[in-house]
Amino acid sequence: MKFTLFALLAAAGLGSLGTAEAKKLTHKEATAKLSAAGVKWESSGGCSDKNGASCTSFTGVREETIAGAITLKRACGCSVTITGGTETGHASGTYSHWNGYKLDFKKASGLNNYITNTFTRIADRGSDPQYKAKSGNTYVNEGNHWDVTFFTDGS
């Protein structure tokens, strides 16, 4: 039953699993989608170069990751600001920033309250509190920002 429901949702474009075959976006495509949904982003270096550690780049981000950020904003009903994307300087791995699965979000009271009151607290990642959504996406409080892994396009 679960597989059938998931298959129907996926076929309708309403759900997806993170896969290596997922569509990757250009920086321009990603920012257009984010802007249209009211999701903000900022860069400490004022740049968008994927190879610049002080930049915030969306080059090569998975389409599902951007959809997940938009879903998060809508579900939260609060302001969300992305501070980290696919740029260099983050930890490596399959489900990494570089591979388009992760985004960093600026901490703000509305977002903080939404994450901590909506999602399930799971084992800490190192010493950082971690929360998991029903979608499987994880939210890690890294002190000055939320490190979010989008395995699916749901929040």
TrEMBL record:
The keyword Signal applies. Keywords: Signal. Residues 1-22 form the signal peptide. This is Uncharacterized protein.
